[in-house]
Amino acid sequence: TLAGGWQSMGAATSCCGEDAASSTKQTPTISCLVTSEGAVVLDDPNLDVSLLAESVSVSEEWQNQLNSLPICPIHGCSYQFLKDFEAGGLHGPHELKGDDFSIGNLCIQVIKPFTTITKQHPLTCSEIIEYYSYAEVGFQTDLHDSRGRPAFHLEACHFVSHAWRYRFYLFVGALRNWLDNNDVNEDSQYFWVDAFVVNQHQAQEYPMEWWSTRFAAAVGEIGSTIMIAEPWDDPLPLKRVWVIWELYCTNQTGARLHLAMTKATSEDFRTALTNDFEKVSSVISSVDVSTCTAYHQSHTEMVHTEIKRTIGFAKLNEMVSLRLTQWLIETATIELHKMKATLDRSNKKALLDSFKLHDNLARMVRESGSPLEAETLFIALIKEARKDLGEHDILVLNCLNQLAVTHQKAKKPEEALTRHRECYDLRQRILGTDHEDTLQSISNLAVLLSDNKPMAASSWLEAKNLYDLAIKGRESTIGENHPRTLYTVSNLAKLLTEAPEKLDKAQLFLEAEKLHSRAVTSLERTLQQEGHPLMLAAQHNQGAHWLERYIFVNDGSGKDIHLLDQAIKQLAHVHHLRVQKLGDSHPDTVLTEVLLAKAEARRQNSRFVKANVAGGSTSWVAAKRREFDKLCTCPSFKKIRDQMRIEGIDKLRNELIEGGYIDPRTNCLTVGTQPFNIFARLASGVQVQRRVPAEQHKLGHFSERYLIAHNKPECREMWERGDPTWLGKAGMSKNHVFLLTKNMHWTNFNVLTMGLARQNVQSAIAMLEDMKQAAHHWVKNSEGWPPPERVGLFVVVYPLTNVPAFHMHIVDLDNKGPSFAKLSYKMLALDDVIAVLRIEAEVPPPVSEFVDAFKRGSRVTENPGKDGNQEILAMLDKHFPELKIYRDGKVYTSPGVVEIEGSPTEYYRTVGAILAFLAAYAYATGDDEFGLEAVAAGERGPMSMDKVPGKFISMGNKPKEYKEFCNRFAETMKDEQDWWSMLIFLAVHDVGKSVKFRDRVNATLPKKMQTDDHDRVLAHCLADIHLTAELLPSVYKMSYDRNAKILAGFATNFQLPQMGQGEVTVKSLNGLLNLPEDHLYDGTLKNYLYHSIFDIAGGPCNERFIFPLALVPVYLGFGTAMEDLCSTLQKGEDIKDYILYTNFLYTNFKKAYPEFEEQQFRSRFEDSNFVRSVGLVLLRILALTRNTYKNAEALMTLLENSYHQVVKEMAGTAGDPQIMVYYGPDMLRMGLGEDLEDKSGDNMKAALSALEHIFALVRSDCQKIGLEDSPQYDLNVTPLVTAIKKAGKEWRGGAELLEVTKKARVKSNAHCTEGILEIDGA
User: Which residues contact 1091 (CB under 8 A, 6 or more apart)?
Assistant: First the structure.
């Protein structure tokens, strides 16, 4: 009885919403593996029996350790008892008065003597001394308070956290005020007060294990913590290490937190809550648990050590601040409701106070991580304030500014921009440009424009002008060295560093250097505080500047290496402090870590950024939480499941072991109190909820395998509450319970890992189907629930749940509460889980079956028409539904050119590419006859094997080389799944040419990202797992890694054939250079490049002749170039796009122009400025002529002296968009006519003028439609090529090329990222 009625080995707490018990990375002190039946449910057939025996002994050892620690009583004393004690105590008067009457002195001078009992030994009659807690004495003597109520109760209602230095009357007064403010009947309330409840003769000697197990469990069992916060603006408890530990236990066990103050302090606090919000906020932001102490230094060290071992100071700071913020929001919400309920709107002061409190509440909600709820609050406030105060009141404008900031936090840049502009315009008109509020709007608007990437030149210029205006205004008002002024200076410097390419970057870097230096130096002098957030932000910006400047000036020679050294040193310093202050998972810390990794990679002359170069590794949980902010759909669940399968489950398992959640010897979940895994404890029977035994029988025979668990009572009661205090924390519906599994093997802890390690997917599906039946069975047998069809079954995918033990939400959908919508982002329907697992269980047909169907069709030498090949076409259509896209609506064959209606050109071209691939598969797997026949034999006009030019360039005449090509290709295919993935790759590679497909994808993109480029459209689709599921089901069913490979390939937006002809833009090579290192070695790049070869082979295919054509220049020429390119990229050297382009073209140039290269070009090539401009452009233009133009010297002279704009355009320095002249090689090669010797250079001069005019036409069109900042524009010049062909021998070379282009015009496609050159009559 004195111990206090414990029902289990640990704390008896209840679930509290979805995240029943917040978990923190911890090393287990004690663990338990015993279930209610006496053993953990183990069904691993490979588990050693001796290991099971060992686990039982481990459990006994755990019980022995736990039993050796004293039980922490959960008794409570009445308020009147405390009040009586203040008056002198029920056992007699004491001498403590005034400042001496503290709880600490009370314990030493009154409680300890009173609870030291001298007795006579019953046998020896000698005196013995026994030590008790005050509560134990109270129970023994049946002590009552002056109101006639028992002074003590076995179970406390509230745990009271306080500082022992408090004067007792303050302590009692704070509790009195708390009772009054919460309208609570004191006779029903009992308070856990350590001085009276815990045996003070022993407590000082308790080890940390007691505090982290017995004590923590008691806090959770009580379920409500009241912290005495005196004075409110500098609460003494927040400086005491034991109070911090109590708050930590409160958070870990899911207990509620209240703050109590005396009446006078409370009134002062309410005033500050309305009128001095910054002061209130500073109390929370100033929490630093690393500085907290205890009376005994040994206690300080003991608790600090435990904090470091379990959660760490940074995360504990964050946790304490969050809990205080939650309390603050709840308090402000209640206070606002009270204020508005009695508001007299004619009382201007009262009205303004209500608006101020409303504004402060909205800001608190926003800063607590709920911007969407804050938006609702601000919108309501603005509407109300405008009605009472008018449109132009300063308070209304301030709220408008706060709403704009909230839109930013909610990741709604367009809404934020609209609001910021509106607020700025109003403030400027009403308050003037130099008013601090106006300057705030100017700065906010500039920051928003700066953060909107990629940044248009117009936006950049506007942001710069705004920053200049803000700095000038703040210098004249608050001073040039004020932190706000200097922070704006740092932001301007950052803007200059990140200027768009088309601006004078060299000059802007110099200007930015001065501004960064000013900001950092002056902030250091002004703040004099290492690690201040503004200081770290400025230092981060400066380090990023040095890195970007080094990248800009570095040409591979290693010059200006000091910039890189400075960047690494600075970023390492910032990263260290941000980890210390914010924790390693904070977005600011991660941002610095990424930049530091990038800088370290540059230091190693590598463009590959290694993970975690910054030191310390990002945990699996942290990485996935950053990547998956939502996990409520089939596609998102499939994606993380695929990742888990590829990455392996070991890292996750090791993190769970390290956190104490898994016993590595049995692979079962631990059920001790450190960590406190509530659902594992309930499922194992270690802890029992009072209502569960009565509910369990409703499961029927399912109760052998599963368990029903309930929400915490207050969460059930508050299910209808939608205010910020309860939103997302209360129950999701009037009826909301959990279904747990008794299978404690760790792979069953979450649907994320089910079926990946110990069991196949089919058994995981069977288990989930069984749980579905169990849930429906329970619902049918429970009163007050709707039929099963109106009951939702949901799971939360780890790591979006903080409880690593399986729990299915059973939710009454007829009576949903506000928290249902709030938590919907992570509520995954059980049926969706099962659907994804069924996809995983599917096995596609082997590629050989497609080859067999291909072979059973008509042979190419007999009847190649579609009638004889219906089987292979039907098989492709069946297994690749994406092929229908090519026959549904308008489809482009090239920029600006739509295929003829009823003639599915792109469908048959895609089929041809697939068949070319199948032919290579057949040849590589031993069918030497069929494979080569399919791509070369038969009647193919001039390309037939026995005709010219086919006699020389058909692969049919080079069987050995074709075999080598097929074998090289097969080397990139590691298994059957790789071959299957390539089939899918080819089936979808051109779906972006479909207008319907483009429109569907573009509808999901911001306007600036919308595009007509078919590769970019496809890449955007692949990057959105939900779009992929909708539009590309074959890709969606692939594993994540193979899906990622296809995306990585198309995201490069690179075309190898066009590069060899100088056709692609310089910028387009960045996709290659940015390709992650692993994709250069896992076949991703090679497969993407091979697809171009098969695509070209399928080009001639049509309805009457579906067989592809393999040509030597494509299969061997591109194949060799591809190998060379991959070898270059795999070296990982820090190479720039223009250098990669130049080097790629140089080999063929050197072969075609040996004398010119040796005598005139080579020496110039050593000048990086020449290479970056004229050198690269000369190589590109010659490649466009297929190196047939003879007068390279004249071309170089023309480029250097007369055609500077052509040089800029083709060197990629003219700014965005870079212009790709589609079919440029045909245009220039044929456009020059027969005079390729061109001794005078006039022919090329006219051709360059034509090219210059074409570029000017595109630029003009882009400016008209506001597209000057798009990355690339593809111009199809096929009509010009048609005109040249039509003229035949009458064509007059460059002069006529210029004449025709002068009459041409550009017609852009829907999204103005590509178009066609229209020419009358062509």
Answer: 913, 982, 985, 986, 989, 1049
| Each residue's pLDDT tens digit, 1118-1173 | 888 888 898 888 888 878 899 999 999 999 999 999 999 999 999 998 888 899 99
Rounded Cα distance, 684 and 671, in Å: 7
Q: Which amino acid is at 530?
A: E
Query: What residue type is assigned to position 1027 of the chain?
Result: L
CA 816 to the chain's CA centroid: 29
CA distance 1168 to 1176: 10
Question: Which among 1001, 1020, 1026, 984 has a CA at the least distance from the CA of 637?
Answer: 1026
> Is 229:259 a contact under the CB 8 Å cutoff?
yes
Q: First and final CA of the chain: distance in angstroms?
A: 101
Task: Identify whether the C-beta of residue 922 lies closer than 8 Å to the C-beta of residue 916.
Answer: no
Handedness of CA 645, 646, 648, 649 (dihedral sign): negative
Let me know: does 1183 contact 1229? Beta carbons within 8 Å.
Answer: no
On the 0-12 / 13-18 / 19+ scale of CB atoms within 10 A, 1159 is exposed
Contact 1041, 978 (CB under 8 A): no
State yes or no: cis peptide before 533, omega within 30 of 0. Answer: no
Q: What is the DSSP string of 1160-1194?
A: IIHHHTT-HHHIIIIIHHHHHHHHHTTT----HHH
Q: For residue 10, what pLDDT is reported? A: 29
Does 686 have pLDDT greater than 80? no
Single out the residue of 1247, 1248, 1241 nearest to residue 1174, CA to CA: 1248
CA nearest 635: which of 286, 1032, 1125?
Answer: 1032
Nearest to 1145 by CA among 1191, 1113, 1186: 1186
Instruction: Say which amino acid occupies 260.
Output: A
Contact between 776 and 749 (Cβ < 8 Å): no
Nearest to 850 by CA among 825, 874, 817, 868: 874
| DSSP3 helix / strand / coil % (the chain, rounded to 5) | 60, 10, 30
Instruction: Give the integer Cα–Cα distance in Å for 539 and 595.
Output: 13
Residue type, 499: A
Question: How distant, in Å, are the alpha carbons of 370, 381, 1068, 1175 from that of 1182?
Answer: 59, 67, 19, 11
CA distance 33 to 702: 22
Average pLDDT of the segment spanning 1082-1107: 91
Tell me the pTM: 0.67
Burial (CB count <10 Å: 0-12, 13-18, 19+), residue 886 = buried
Residue 984: which of 924, 1044, 1038 has the closest Cα?
1038
Give the chain's radius of gyration (CA, Å): 37
Q: How confident is the model at residue 1269 (pLDDT cuts 50, 70, 90)?
A: low
User: Exposure pattern of 322-340 as b/e (b: 16+ CB <10 Å)?
Assistant: ebbbbbbbbbbbebbeebe
Question: What average pLDDT does the structure give for the chain?
Answer: 86
Q: What amino acid occupies position 766?
A: A
Provide the 3-class DSSP secondary structure of residue 741.
strand
For 219, phi and psi rounded to 5 degrees? -60, -45
Q: Which residue has the tokens 């928290």?
A: 819
How buried is 55 (Cβ within 10 angstroms: 0-12 exposed, 13-18 middle, 19+ buried)? buried
Instruction: Give the contacts of 392 (CB within 8 A, at least 6 positions apart).
Output: 426, 430
Query: 117: part of which helix (H) or strand (E)?
Result: strand 116-120
pLDDT of res. 458? 83
Element (H or E) spanning 1137, and its range?
helix 1137-1152
**3-state helix/strand/coil string of 749-803:** CCCCCCCCCCCCHHHHHHHHHHHHHHHHHHHHCCCCCCCHHHEEEEECCCCCCCC
Bridge partners for 733 per DSSP: 816
User: What does the pLDDT look like over 377-422, one tens digit per residue?
Assistant: 999 999 999 999 998 999 999 999 999 999 988 888 889 999 999 9
